[in-house]
Specification:
alpha/beta; 9 strands
Length: about 210
């Protein structure tokens, strides 16, 4: 089962990346992002793609330039996530056949990202907008726009975000912090998946 959850492995090392990726997939999280301000992120991405590319969508976060997009594509990444809305980055990502998830916070940024070809929108920082901010923005977004809440969205408030119109979530420290063992990564991922499944079931009954 594929869930709309992105594990953000900020700070992970190449040695830890492959086992962490395997643990996440086993727990039910199959979209994985390595921010480019991590140690040797392209090595981590390439290693995860080689080991688990058939079972997960793997890519990079904190992507700020078209050169970085190209480097991620060369490493085998399929996903480009940014903290900002950069039309050139979005366009280059789509030209290379990768999924583009730019960060947006305002209606202006959201509509600009969609015009540039974004696959979906990353509402960031989610804690500043809150579910009410997303609910208000939904009124002007084109039908079918996919929005993931990132930063301030997690197991404790999945239900509120889903009720506000979130389609999915990016999970950072709730999922991973540098140095934790692989069994802790697996345990955190299982808790996240269980919480999401409960919230999604409640939302479907509402």
């Amino acid at each position: 089962m594929t869930r709309p959850l992105i594990a953000i492995l900020r700070g992970i090392t190449p040695d830890d990346a492959v086992p962490a990726c395997g643990a996440l997939i086993a727990a039910g999280i199959t979209t994985i992002e390595v921010p480019l301000n991590s140690p040797e992120p392209l090595r981590s991405i390439a290693g995860m793609v080689a080991a688990h590319g058939n079972a997960a969508t793997i890519g990079a976060g904190t992507v700020l330039s078209t050169n970085e997009v190209h480097s991620v594509a060369e490493a085998g990444g399929q996903l480009i996530v940014s903290p900002n809305c950069d039309a050139d980055v979005i366009a280059r990502t789509r030209e290379l056949g990768l999924a583009s998830w730019p960060g947006i916070f305002t209606p202006t940024e959201a509509l600009a990202a969609l015009r540039a070809g974004a696959s979906g929108l990353k509402l960031f920082p989610g804690a500043m907008a809150g579910p009410d901010g997303l609910k208000a923005m939904r009124a002007i977004l084109p039908p079918g726009t996919t929005v993931y809440a990132v930063g301030g969205a997690g197991p404790e408030n999945f239900a509120a975000w889903l009720d506000a119109g979130a389609d999915g979530f990016g999970l950072g420290t709730a999922c991973y912090v540098p140095g934790i063992p692989v069994d802790e990564i697996a345990a955190r991922a299982r808790r996240i998946v269980e919480a999401y499944d409960r919230a999604a079931e409640q939302e479907s009954r509402a």
